[in-house]
Write a structure and sequence with these properties.
It is a single chain. The protein is mainly α and about 200 residues long. The protein has 2 domains: about 90 residues, Orthogonal Bundle (Rna Polymerase Sigma Factor, Chain: A), CATH 1.10.1740.10; about 80 residues, Arc Repressor Mutant, subunit A (Orthogonal Bundle), CATH 1.10.10. The protein is built from 10 helices and no strands.
Length: about 200
C-alpha cells in the first residue's frame, strides 16, 4: 500500500511534524521486531535509533510507493544484518578452549549441568529454545518469519521490505517454519506435521 502524496511530500521535505508522527507510530513495532530478531534491549534500541537516523538522512529519496513503516523495516533489517555480520567476524577469532573451560571442570564434569526438561519449561525454556532456533536460521528466512508471524505484516509490505517476490516470500516462510519445527523437535519439543509454530 503506497503512502499518501501529502505524507510522502512531508517525508521528502523532512517536515518535523510528519517525521515525528512516523517515529511515534513505528517505534514500538520496530523495537518489537528488533527484539524478535534476537537483539537484547540495548542492542534493539541502538538498531532502531540507527534506523531512524538513516531514515531522516535519506528522507529525500522516499518515493511513497510503499508505506514509511515498510521502508523503516527494510532499513532495520539491513542494520540487524550488518550487526550480525560484524559479530560473526568477531566470533571467528574466539578460542574454543575458553568455551570448554567455561563449561567443564578439570575432570571433565559440567560446571553447571543442564537442567531437566520440567525445570526448563517452568523457566520459559520454550521461548529460549525458539530464540535459539531463530538465531540459527538464515537471516532472510528469520526476517520473513518475524515480519509475518510477529509483526503480522501483509505479503506486499514484507515483499517490499525484503525486496522479494510473493513466490520467494512463500518459499522463505515455508523454509523458516520447517526449520523452526525441526529445530524444536531436535530440542525435544513436539512439532506438528504442518510446521505451524
Amino acid at each position: 500500500m503506497p503512502e499518501s502524496p501529502d505524507r510522502t511530500a512531508g517525508i521528502r521535505d523532512r517536515d518535523p511534524a510528519v517525521l515525528e508522527a512516523i517515529v511515534d507510530e513505528s517505534l514500538p513495532l520496530l523495537l518489537r521486531a528488533a527484539r524478535a530478531a534476537g537483539l537484547d534491549r540495548d542492542a534493539a534500541e541502538d538498531a532502531v535509533q540507527e534506523t531512524f537516523l538513516v531514515f531522516v538522512r535519506r528522507a529525500h529519496e522516499f518515493d511513497g510507493r510503499a508505506r514509511a513503516k515498510t521502508w523503516l523495516y527494510g532499513i532495520l533489517l539491513k542494520k540487524i544484518s550488518e550487526g550480525r555480520r560484524a559479530l560473526a567476524r568477531d566470533a571467528e577469532g574466539e578460542d574454543i578452549d575458553a568455551e570448554v573451560e567455561a563449561r567443564f571442570g578439570e575432570a571433565g564434569e559440567w560446571i553447571r549441568p543442564p537442567r531437566g526438561p520440567a525445570e526448563e519449561l517452568a523457566r520459559g525454556e520454550v521461548r529460549r529454545q525458539l530464540g535459539e532456533c531463530l538465531d540459527a536460521m538464515p537471516a532472510r528466512q528469520r526476517q520473513a518469519f518475524v515480519l509475518r508471524e510477529v509483526e503480522e505484516l501483509e505479503t506486499g509490505e514484507i515483499c517490499d521490505a525484503l525486496a522479494v517476490s510473493a513466490n520467494n516470500l512463500g518459499v522463505l516462510l515455508y523454509r523458516a517454519r520447517n526449520r523452526i519445527r525441526e529445530c524444536l523437535e531436535a530440542k525435544g519439543l513436539d512439532g506438528s506435521a504442518d510446521a505451524v509454530v
